[in-house]
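dude i think i finally got it to work??
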Amino acid sequence: MKMKKLTLAIAAIALCAAAAAQTTQEEFQTRYERLVRNLGYDGVGIETLLDRWEEAFPDDAAVPVARFNYYFYKGRRTEVVARPGLRRYLGQEPTLTLKDSDGNDVNYFEESFYDEDLFGEAMKILDAQIAAHPDELRWQYMRITALAAYEKESPDMAAAALKQLIMRHATVHPAWTLDGEPAGADIFQQGVGEYCANFFEMGTEAGYEYFREISELMTKYFPRNSVFVANLGSYWFVAKGNDKQAAKYYKKALKIDPDDEAASRNLKIIERKQAAAKKKR
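look at this
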């Protein structure tokens, strides 16, 4: 069964009203969503609406989400930047390809940059919510996602925050919730797995290393989860080009879960490469 994405899209975070929503809260929600559709998360009038919404319903969890989005997107600008020699950048295809004076392709990628002060305001909102609701995964996920977007090629703070979250899970055993609903160990593992995938897709040296470190940490606490074992195979296969070491981890993952698609597919690729190499001898 296909599971929904938990973590990575800041803009797609659901802005749900409280369970016992009153008409007035629904009206605020509707007005906000209309403004966002027409003007974006940082559009004219949104801050004023949020001030009124928070004054009327200070405990509505949708308000800090919306206020975070306001500062995060108000402080973000995008540019098309040349990245010579790169076919992909942070997992993205080039927006534009031009020729240099020697006739070589130069790829251009859309890149985001953030205003320090406005990004800081956005993070203050998340920090306050985490302090008040330390077991609510949505706030934790939003913080890690925002840090990864800000740091780009080397997501040091994002990785550190994710490691802290894993250690909290292992030592404190919190009663996690996600959007107010109980979230068990399976939901927690899925969320961490999505961040691992994000680090891997960056295609940078730091991204690969954090992919490895976090996968190793998760195999320590969740040894029966084949995903993180297969991740280690992919680290050796893609980042290090070590087929032998990769095959070892893929086989280990398949012993845990014979239906692990990534491990099975990549192990077959390695075995075909090895068979082809033998024929050439």
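Residues 11-22 have pLDDT under 50 and may be disordered.
im so relieved honestly
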